[in-house]
Amino acid sequence: MINRKTGMKAGHIFILSIILFLSGSCATKIPHSIMPDYQDKMPTSIAVLPVQNETTDMDAGGVFRPRLYSIILSKGYATPAVAGVDSLLAQKDIREAGQLGSMTPLEIGELLNVDALLYATVTEWSTTCLVVYSSVKVGARFQLIDARTGGQLWESEHEVAEKKFGLDSDDMVDNLSFAALQGYEPYVMRLINMTFSTLPNGPRYVPSKGGRGCLGP
Q: pLDDT per residue over 108-125, tens digit each?
């Protein structure tokens, strides 16, 4: 006869094992949507536009953009240099992301001579420090728009965060140091890598020799 308490304990361990397995699984779901016939309408070239910033940190967009340029290249799409994009946009009096709405995607695509446009918005860029708890959080929203039709090809919105807890004096010091010394760049790269794993590789994609492991949120 199975002891009731033993059975309950075993059940709790089983459930906890499932939770730990799922939390560490490579099958982490990144919220996104993609046009069903993306392969048929796949762009060969994508321009990375100035990044919209909804946070209070003026530098957030500037940290994202060069890394977005790199990920687009690595996924096998041609992409014009950021400086060249900005130079052409400036000819139309567009010098920041908030002014992109003055032209349609078709007009911008023709100006930049690309098939698609990557619109990006930084939605979260924060550090929280409460002595016993500290965290760093970065979030963003991405849209890939077909510059030939104006339709949306792909979109995704995600955020990553790291948290530290501690109640004793050593942990409190560690928490304060963690919040004070953390740079945002590693979290931006983690966010971009995770999010763009949902975007199919482009026509110029060349697999890297070294494989990548799982990237946790």
A: 999 999 999 999 999 999
Q: Are residues 156 and 32 in contact, defined by beta-carbon separation less than 8 angstroms? A: yes
Q: CA-CA distance, 191 to 204, in Å (whole number)? A: 23
Instruction: Give the total residue count for the chain.
Output: 217
Cα–Cα distance for residue pair 171/175, rounded to 1 Å:
6
> Is-contact 54 212, C-beta < 8 A?
no
The structure's pTM equals 0.77
Q: Which domains does the chain have, with CATH numbers?
A: 30-124+138-159+184-196 (3.40.50.10610)
The residue with tokens 């967009």 is 61
Q: Are 143 and 157 in contact (CB under 8 A)?
A: no
User: Cα dist. 130→98, 134, 171, 217 in Å?
Assistant: 34, 6, 12, 22
